Amino acid sequence: MGRLLVTIGAGLGLAIVSLFGFLLYVLLASGNPTYWDGEIAAFERRDVSNPPPKDAVLFVGADDVRQWEALPYDMAPVPIVQRGFGGAQIAHVTYFSPRIVAPYRPSAIVLMAGEADLSDVRGRRPEDVLDDFKKLVSSLRAQGVAAPIYFVSIHPSPMRLSRWYGAQRANALIQDYEKTAQGLYYIDVATAMFDDKGALRRDLFRWDGLSLNARGYALLTEIIKPLLVKAGYGAETQTR
Q1: Residue 32: phi, psi to the nearest 5?
Q2: Distance CA 90, CA 109 (A)
């Protein structure tokens, strides 16, 4: 009996060590843009069989975009292209922009990224997030993508409240930068995620404390959609 318990304990210990090693590998590997190449290739295959609409608003970024299942319906009548992948960082969007941004010739770009940047195990500062956003803008303009870029503020989450101060700093830096450049816009969604007492609304998130639920996406829709409609996207005549 004793040997059996020792064997079981050793097996469990090995399993835990293996799981920890795998998670560490994923955390390190996901910081490299090539980690997401499979998801990007899947987008390209989909574009061949089901070409995206022309002159659409491109939603690009990380999990908030990828998991927004009702995005095309929530944004109607604004036509959209949905390109969210993994835990994408802003630099990853830049890396893949020749494949999942420029080819679509979007009428506007809605960027939802930045949270994963600050969660990178290598350590990323708010200033790094700003620098990466600047590089993305420069890269897109160099590729001939002149579409307005809407940066959706990094929002808090219950599981990452300890990083919220850094996210606020990154938001402020990007907001200040966008005021100095033409064709850049900042959309604040974070403020609405707190109640009147200043507490984070946990009812907007799924059980994991990271992902938005249907109520969370409804809130984003209430904020983002009117701005796009007012700007004329989806109408015959667009005013930007």
Answers
A1: -95, 130
A2: 13
Three-state DSSP state, 17: helix
- Number of Cα atoms under 13 Å in the Cβ half of residue 194: 11
> What strand order describes the sheet that includes 149-152?
80-84, 57-61, 108-112, 149-152, 184-187
Fold type of domain 35-230? Rossmann fold (3.40.50)
CA distance 63 to 207: 15
Distance CA 229, CA 165 (A): 32
Task: Determine the residue type at 103.
Answer: P
| Residue range 104-116, pLDDT digits in tens | 999 999 999 999 9
| 74-107 residue pLDDT tens | 999 999 999 999 889 999 999 999 999 999 999 9
Reported as type and span, the H/E element at residue 48 is helix 37-49
| Amino acid letter, 18 | S
* pTM reported for the whole predicted model: 0.85
Range list of β-strands (E), 56-191: 57-61, 80-84, 108-112, 149-152, 184-187
Of the candidates 169, 152, 58, which has an alpha carbon nearest to the alpha carbon of residue 103?
58
